[in-house]
Specification:
The structure holds two protein chains of two kinds.
Chain A lengths: L1 H20 L1 H22 L3 H24 L1 H9 L1 H6 L5 H30 L6 H26 L6 H9 L4 H15 L5 H30 L1
Helix pairs in contact in A: 1-2, 1-6, 2-3, 2-6, 3-6, 3-7, 3-9, 6-7, 6-10, 7-8, 7-9, 7-10, 9-10
Chain B lengths: L2 E11 L2 E12 L3 E5 L6 H9 L6 E6 L2 E2 L4 H5 L2 E4 L11 H11 L9 H7 L15 H14 L4 E5 L7 H16 L3 E5 L10 E3 L1 H10 L1
Parallel strand pairs in B: 3-8, 3-9, 6-7, 7-8
Antiparallel strand pairs in B: 1-2, 1-4, 4-5
Helix pairs in contact in B: 3-5, 4-5
């Protein structure tokens, strides 16, 4: 078991090292997130009450789109340079390798999004009571996005126009996370308990952790054939 | 006694029969040379041996047991070197090799990353980012993997491509050292890499299907 953990750690370490040396990739995702959110006050007008009303939804939709943007490279480079064959041929279960890649992906894209989100909430005039719940909901929701995205990223290997295909495949699957993520923040803003929504987000994450690596691994094995 | 056997293997790719009724046997300390013209299925056979592909028909046995029954253990026993070199250009030469040695699941004290780099004369380049490597150096780094962590079965797909004479010598001596330790090698190549002449000509098994069709 400890050997598994070491290998799990090695893979995460390699992914993080690659992400740091290709630092621009993660930065671009964060910049995209910020830009999308900034477009909304320009589009719907600077009326504070409207912005307050839509703040949670805008931040969540922008987070989904940004997560989307980073997803297609998750397995693509490994597929192109032959690393995927070798990862499949390691004696560890491929599901474990997928999970390590997802964790690394979340650390390099999901986590930065969570960190900048309070700034954007401020920009959209969100009320103070929503901040804590928004951070909690994003912390529970973004790992689920990475897990779902990994399935799509594995399925599109070898396809043409893979970026567009990926969006069509996985954006619909993001909907449950979006609904409960936004309604958790809305509940907090109207002084209602937001615990039920957070529990559902946690449940989605746990189910995803248990099931989605298997789906991604099956798709990866298919791609290598 | 390690033994690697394929029985009556048939492989169909994209509705085309690549080869049919192909059998092979590799014993301890033996090298099997796969020959055949381009496109005859040498790479396909090696991927099949590694378990990356499933045979349409036939079985692959390791020590008399179906390699698919305990796939994870079997994968721990082999090294596969394909056409793609699995090198991350942002990592240094040593980081690339160390990563794959770690992923092999072999005990740290049995790994030999430094020695493997020296063996393929990459020692002086170990801290260089891999994007600066030439094609031959990339190939050598990919080959160094097989020496960096021990595994009894080596599956090498055209390992001599873009290698100079000196590196070819390093590859030859790595293979013969592996043979002396009782290792098994299957290699698709146009070069003569060892003294043994255990040759499997794949084109014989591809012709058969044309008669049958």
């Amino acid at each position: 078991m400890s050997a598994f953990l070491q290998i799990f750690g090695s893979l995460i370490q390699r992914e993080l090292r690659l992400a740091i040396r290709h630092g621009a990739d993660s930065m671009m995702v964060v910049m995209f997130f910020v830009l999308v959110v900034v477009l909304f006050p320009l589009g719907v007008g600077p009326e504070p009450s409207i912005l307050t009303r839509i703040s949670a939804g805008v931040i969540w939709v922008a987070a989904l789109l940004s997560a989307m943007l980073s997803m297609d490279r998750l397995f693509q480079t490994d597929f192109e340079d032959g690393s995927l064959d070798l990862l499949i041929l390691t004696p560890q279960p491929l599901e474990l390798m997928v999970l390590a890649k997802v964790v690394a992906h979340w650390l390099t894209t999901g986590l930065p999004l969570i960190i900048v989100s309070p700034l954007l909430a401020l920009l959209l005039n969100m009320e103070a009571s929503g901040y804590g719940v928004m951070l909690a909901a994003l912390a529970l929701g973004t790992p689920t996005l990475s897990l779902i995205g990994a399935i799509g990223a594995a399925l599109i290997l070898g396809a043409r126009r893979s970026g567009v295909l990926l969006s069509l495949l996985i954006l619909p699957l993001f909907i449950p996370t979006l609904i409960f993520g936004v309604s958790a923040v809305d509940a907090a803003l109207t002084d209602l308990p937001s615990k039920p929504q957070l529990m559902i987000l946690a449940g989605l994450l746990l189910a995803g952790l248990a099931l989605f690596p298997w789906a991604s691994a099956a798709a990866l094995r298919q791609a290598a054939e | 006694m390690a033994e690697f056997i394929g029985q009556e293997l048939t492989c169909i790719r994209g509705e085309r029969v690549v080869f049919s009724d192909l059998s092979f046997a590799i014993g301890e300390g033996e090298v099997l040379y796969l020959r055949g013209p381009n496109g005859s299925g040498k790479s396909t056979l090696l991927r099949l041996m590694a378990g990356l592909l499933r045979p349409t028909n036939g079985t692959i046995l390791w020590n008399g047991e179906n390699a698919r029954d305990d796939a994870e253990t079997f994968r721990g026993l082999l090294h596969y070197v394909g056409h793609q070199d699995a090198i991350k250009t942002a990592l240094t030469v040593e980081e690339n090799l160390t990563f794959w040695a770690e992923m092999s699941g072999v005990d740290p004290e049995k790994r030999a990353v430094g020695e493997a780099l020296e063996e393929f004369s990459l020692g002086h380049l170990s801290t260089l980012p891999a994007r600066f490597l030439s094609a031959g150096q990339r190939k050598r780094l990919n080959l160094a993997r097989i020496c960096a962590s021990p595994a009894p079965l080596w599956l090498l797909d055209e390992p001599s491509n873009s290698l100079d004479t000196e590196s070819l010598g390093a590859l030859r001596s790595a293979i013969s050292a592996h043979q002396e330790k009782g290792g098994l090698v299957a290699v698709a190549t146009h070069e003569e890499l060892g003294s043994d002449t255990n040759v499997l000509d794949i084109s014989e098994f591809t012709k058969k299907k044309e008669v049958a069709a």
